[in-house]
Amino acid sequence: MIIDNHISLKTYNTFGMDVFADNLIYILQENDLFDVLENQLSPIKIIGGGSNILMTGDIPGFVLRNEIKGIEIIEEDIHQVKVQVGAGEKWHQLVLWSLSHNMGGLENLSLIPGSVGAAPMQNIGAYGVEQESVFHSLKAIHLNSGATKIFSKEECKFGYRESIFKNELKDQYFITHVTYLLKKRNHDLHLEYGVITDIIRQKGITKPTIQDISAAVIEIRQSKLPDPSQIGNAGSFFKNPVVSISKYQSLKEEYPDIPSYPVSETEVKIPAGWLIEKSGYKGKTFGNIGVHKNQALVLVNYGGGSGLDIHSLSIQIQKTVLEVFGIKIQTEVNIW
Ligand code: FAD
Ligand code: NAP
Asked: 224 pLDDT exceeds 90?
């Protein structure tokens, strides 16, 4: 078991917050985790790529950094393949690996930062696809009892940027492996998000492949989103709110350009980025921190900003959006 004491986590979180962990333990294999549990070390926090966490202060106790690797085909037939992945693999490396084997299902989720183990945590999603669409099961170890449990898709209770691990079972399990079912042929192409089709058309591609979709997603993301290695951020800070059709209609009378996407017969999703932009925050800076100039959903640390400052700004934004639109936007990022 490798332990670093009193170590800065600046390079372990994409906001680049310079906070200190009392102890950082690298979990390279399941046995490292069992050692931690046998020694009853606590309190424990788990970290993957640190791309969905806002650290607001130093962290007492033990931070476990998940570094369990490995991508293994455990079953296959002529149509599909079951792939078990060590939770410490980088998500985008898994996507690239799947594309190099022409396995379909992950292409719309290209270039999402972070680890495979954190993907089920908030059921990562982008461009009309969520990881649950190819999820088979995951293996996790209970932090109190040390018991191993396999969670089926149903047991994970996936929702929009949600799972049981963000709710009822928050901070209770360490996810060690995730298994996905990927298609080998007759790929289902998800082109609902118009920007993807626009890029594919511009390139003159008439029969897009999963590799073309991935390339389009990568191009869009690189042109729009701040690269955490240049500007600290954790992607979308808030979730898109879902409101009733009647609420949406009353807002539309006042704001005819308000965008919306249907969720069900009675509800629509309104992009939180639009609400924040209309509330006057897009591109605003407050000392070392601010709201990104291209995407108001992304809060940024220009360098030297503190987690507490970002947290205060997020509360201020929530308050303004509530005052202006009567909608409470919820945080997506995990606040530590
Ligand atoms: P971390 O930030 O390390 O952890 C997140 C949470 O999961 C924490 O609560 C942590 O304790 C817990 N956790 C991590 N690993 C484990 C484990 N093995 N077992 C148990 N608990 C664990 N998200 C999307 O959904 N879609 C996007 O398109 C997207 N784009 C992004 C773009 C940028 C530029 C950035 C910075 C972030 C983006 N995100 C997106 C958010 C983030 O990348 C994902 O949520 C990602 O899955 C987080 O992975 P991570 O390993 O960095 O998790
Ligand atoms: P965008 O294209 O500017 O669109 C704004 C919002 O509108 C998105 O959040 C998306 O909701 C919604 N939307 C757009 N087209 C839609 C359609 N055809 N059907 C349903 N909803 C639609 O968004 P963006 O910021 O550039 O992000 C693009 C994609 O990457 C989105 O799916 C977004 O979730 C994902 N992303 C996520 C994060 C994160 O940290 N969670 C960070 C960056 C990008 P959805 O968010 O529900 O898809």
From this structure: no
Q: Which positions are catalytic?
A: 161, 236, 332
Point out the ligand nearest to the CA of residue 164.
1
Atom of ligand 2 nearest to the CA of 52: 40
Q: Tell me 135's DSSP state.
A: E
**Closest residue CA from atom 35 of ligand 1:** 235
- Give per-residue pLDDT as tens, 243-254: 999 999 999 999
C-alpha to C-alpha distance for 114 and 180, rounded to whole angstroms = 17
**32: which 2 tokens?**
């490292």
Distance CA 139, CA 174 (A): 9
Model confidence over 158-208: pLDDT tens digits? 999 999 999 999 999 999 999 999 999 999 999 989 899 999 999 999 999
* Average pLDDT score over the chain: 96
Ligand nearest, relative to CA of residue 111: 1
Sequential DSSP letters for 198-251: HHHHHTT-SS--HHHHHHHHHHHHHHHSPPTTTSEEEEESBPPPEEEHHHHHHH
What is the rounded average pLDDT of the residues 126-142?
Answer: 97
Which ligand has its closest atom nearest to the C-alpha of 127? 2
Distance 114 CA to ligand 1 centre (A): 5
Instruction: Determine the distance separating the centroid of ligand 1 and the alpha carbon of 101, expressed in angstroms.
Output: 25
Q: Supply the residue whose CA is at minimum distance from atom 3 of ligand 2.
A: 295
Q: What is the mean pLDDT of residues 2-14?
A: 95
> Using one digit for the tens of pLDDT, what is the confidence trace for 52-81?
999 999 999 999 999 999 999 999 999 999
241 C-beta closer than 6 A to ligand 2 = no
CA distances from 210 to 101, 105, 108, 191 (A): 11, 8, 8, 11
Closest atom of ligand 2 to 195 CA is: 2
Residue 109 sits at the vertex; the CA angle it makes with 126 and 222, to the nearest 5 degrees, is: 85
